[in-house]
Design a protein that fits this description.
Elements (H helix, E strand, L loop, with lengths): L1 H14 L5 H27 L3 H25 L5 H24 L6 H20 L10 H28 L1
Helix pairs in contact: 1-2, 2-3, 3-4, 4-5
């Protein structure tokens, strides 16, 4: 409940650019990733009797922790946000969801629930995955360095002109 409330408050504060938004967003992301999801793993491990299901759920929740941290990093404009999110969602869509499906579909009592959950996870994961631009941009390191060099030369030129104007005054 605390995680949900701080997440909603952080989102509202961030939307309206109110003070304290960053603190609430970081707090909610930390609570989700470091408190809520590990507790969920613990509860799932107690409920499940099948060892394979325990491993599948544990891997899924670890991937969820990575995705939650990636989203937190993205919201806060911290480095490596894109990598965290991209890898988490890639592992979710292409590793976790198939593992989940193939380990649970064999049991008749779970067949419908497994199918519905798999479709929802693939749809949500696919939509999240589609948000990433996977094309490498044409902007390489050499272009970046040449722009920095040009900027440095321009800065030096402007500094010299300012010194000449100051001496002329």
């Amino acid at each position: 409940v605390v995680t949900a409330i701080t997440t909603l408050l952080g989102a509202i504060f961030k939307t309206f650019h109110w003070p304290g938004a960053g603190v609430l967003v970081v707090l909610s992301g930390a609570l989700l990733s470091v408190v809520f999801l590990p507790l969920l793993i613990t509860l799932k491990l107690k409920d499940e009797k099948n060892t394979i299901d325990k491993w599948v759920f544990t891997s899924g929740l670890i991937i969820g922790m990575g995705a939650a941290l990636g989203i937190l990093f993205k919201i806060m404009h911290w480095p490596y946000a894109g990598s965290l999110m991209r890898w988490s969602i890639t592992f979710f869509v292409f590793l976790y969801v198939p593992l989940y499906y193939f380990t649970r579909i064999r049991r008749a009592e779970l067949r419908l629930n497994t199918t519905v959950n798999t479709v929802l996870m693939m749809a949500c994961g696919g939509l999240l995955y589609a948000m990433f631009n996977l094309n490498h941009n044409n902007f390489d390191h050499q272009e970046y360095q040449s722009m920095l060099d040009e900027l440095s030369q321009e800065t030096t030129r402007l500094r010299e002109q300012n010194e000449q104007l100051l001496l002329a005054n």
